[in-house]
Amino acid sequence: MVNRLTTVDASFYFLEASNTPMHLGSLSILQPPRSGLDYEDLLTRVENRLALVPRYRQRVREVAFGIARPVWVDDRDFDITYHVRRSALPKPGSDEQLHDLVARLTSRPLDRSRPLWEMYLVEGLSKNRVAIFTKSHSSLVDGEHALEIGQVLLDPTKTPPPPTEELWMPRREPREAELVLDAVAEMVARPSEGAATLRMAVGDLIGTAAEVVGNIAAVVRTAAHTAPTSPLNAPISRNRRFAVAKTPLADYRAVRDKYSCTVNDAILAVLTGALRNWLLSRGEPVTAFTTVRALVPMAVDSGVAERGVSSFLVDLPVGELNPVVRLSHIAHATEAHAKQNRPAALPLARMSGLAPATLHAMGLRVASGLSQRVFNLMITNAPGPQSPLYLGGAKVLEMYPVSPLLKNQTLSVGLTSYNGHVYYGLNADRDAMSDVDVVTALLYESLEELLDATT
């Protein structure tokens, strides 16, 4: 029995273009122990955990003539040193140099002839720090059966559990004739599969993704019109810029307690203020009624002791001058959505903890099931653990998501809360949004403005 890509997995695989690589990134900055964390340590660490993410040793094989969705096959020539790589900054490397490196690595598509992931150990950072940047293709991580590798690499204590013994032997790869016969049999038994494959061939991601994304219809119904015209929407290149912001989680909790909203409402209000001032800095016309429509996939409780990912469209009131009124508009919109639409959340695998990168992957699946004409910007917010995590004794100091850009969208914002802070990762088109650093600077100003209103 072949292990075929799901409809959504195949959509991500086929619809990737040179200027819209569909991999998710995760940047972690670590403080190594006195014994250090070198390339061999990381290589051993990853190798010991690959059994927990078996798809990371599988590659995609297409079926002849495109008559069926591709299949996952074990990579008989799997070479872990190809996927786990080493890079370095000139000492003492600055954070800005690290962000430039991440932007360049994000711009490069993954090698389709091998398992669709890469990991980089970046040495040479100032203050004796190291960084780990991971890229995983969106077709590789579904959050239910296949997790992102970061989910299994990190531990809650400095001392990792002993590795489990595992002897991996690749399974026999099916012959071409077997794949064709299996595809024909499937088409006869389920004609709808053939229709779905055809839609993928002509680039209909909306039709294919909507088959499994249960809350897409509810989201679309909230979009009475297309998104406002915005400089956030323009043709994009294959090159990227990456910028970050680190803010205290306690600040958003203070806003929550003062105005009886949610932490997510406060975060969206801060982003709204930053986008408002960014538009003004560009000389864009901003009136009292100007909005930016955001698609916000986020983690939710499904009500059955599990968690999942739901999403909603919200018009961010960038035309509003008063930060408290901006917050009020957003809080009312999110509350109305919660009352009118019971979340039909995409399921997540049962696990002891949630890895932010897996949640961001699920958020992208929700976003990609919608036409980009109905929103200007994607904002994914994934809660992480509020206690330190470790990799082989190295403490994770900071973690930033790197969400991919969708077609004609110049900016993607990913957020992760971890160990008392909220980390913003802003992935932007290098040409269409060369001033992404302005947005990160304005995030701090916007947060300070909202905090001043709480006192």
Molecular structure report:
There is one protein chain. By secondary structure, this protein is an alpha+beta fold. It is built from 14 helices and 16 strands. A 7-stranded mixed sheet has the order 8-16-15-12-9-10-11, with helices on both faces. The chain has a 6-stranded mixed sheet with strand order 5-6-7-2-14-13. A 3-stranded antiparallel sheet has the order 1-4-3, with no helix packed on it. Strand 6 and strand 7 form a beta hairpin. Helix 10 packs across helix 14. The longest helix has 19 residues. 45% of the residues are buried.
Task: Give a summary of the structure in a few sentences.
The chain has 455 residues and is α+β, with helices and mostly antiparallel strands.
- The secondary-structure class comes to alpha+beta
Order of neighbouring strands in the sheet with most strands: 8-16-15-12-9-10-11
The number of helical segments is 14
Could you name the ranges where pLDDT drops below 50 across 5 or more consecutive residues?
204-223, 302-306, 343-354
Overall average pLDDT: 84
Strand portion: 15-25%
Report the major sheet.
Answer: 7 strands, mixed
What letter string, H or E per element, gives the SSE order?
EHEHEEHEHEEHHHHHEHHEEHEHEEEEEH
Euclidean distance between termini CA atoms: 63 Å
Shape: globular
What's the alpha carbon Rg, rounded to whole Å? Answer: 22 Å
Number of distinct beta strands: 16
Helix content: 25-40%
